[in-house]
Amino acid sequence: MADRKIRVLLVDDHQVVRRGLRTFLEVQDDIEVVGEAGDGAEGVARAEELKPHVVLMDVKMPGMDGVEALRKLRELANPAKVLIVTSFTEQRTVVPALRAGASGYVYKDVDPEALAGAIRSVHAGHVLLQPEVAVALLSEDDSPGGTGRGGSLTEREREVLGLIADGRSNREIARALVLSEKTVKTHVSNILMKLDLADRTQAALWAVRHGLTG
Fold first, then answer.
1. 10: which of 44, 58, 110, 143 lies 20 to 30 Å off by Cα?
2. Which pTM was predicted?
3. Which residues contact 28 (CB under 8 A, 6 or more apart)?
4. How many Cα atoms occupy the beta-carbon half-sphere of 148 within 13 Å?
5. In what order do the strands lie in the sheet with 31-37?
6. Looking at the predicted structure, is the pLDDT value of residue 39 above 70?
């Protein structure tokens, strides 16, 4: 049904890329492309207007780039999940985007089914961290949240954090730990507060860096 479709906004300065992404997605029964934007500033404005569930966004764009647009998107009342669309050689731009709040990334030559799967995944609350980016994150010294703060987490919160880093949604964490989804949300809120992190993406990065993954 139309009201249950995942609403997607495409943000890329290359029209041919946007056209290709739209072509990929228009054949998916559960995904609807609700709009397009050619730069970060327009993307933020369109997101505020159209209220998409997921934003597919390039990082390198004229004017406001993807990282700055991510920061602006997080200030909206109902921020969308952001999936970065990048080329294979742009790992150094992917890491700042993840730190700014992106839920993951895909390559511009992504297989259509893999693209649709990634959109469904971030919409469901997953964080998409591929091994090579996790390695890059682990090699950096400016990870959000201090190392010592992990000691303030309860054992249950550490379990929840580890599952977040494994890409589990709140519903999946609830099933795995035999908890209610509401209780999991409370644990996630407490984790973010204790570690002084902005969102579950940063929480996943923190967990990877501090060895809490499964």
1. 143
2. 0.72
3. 116
4. 0
5. 31-37, 6-11, 54-57, 81-86, 104-107
6. yes
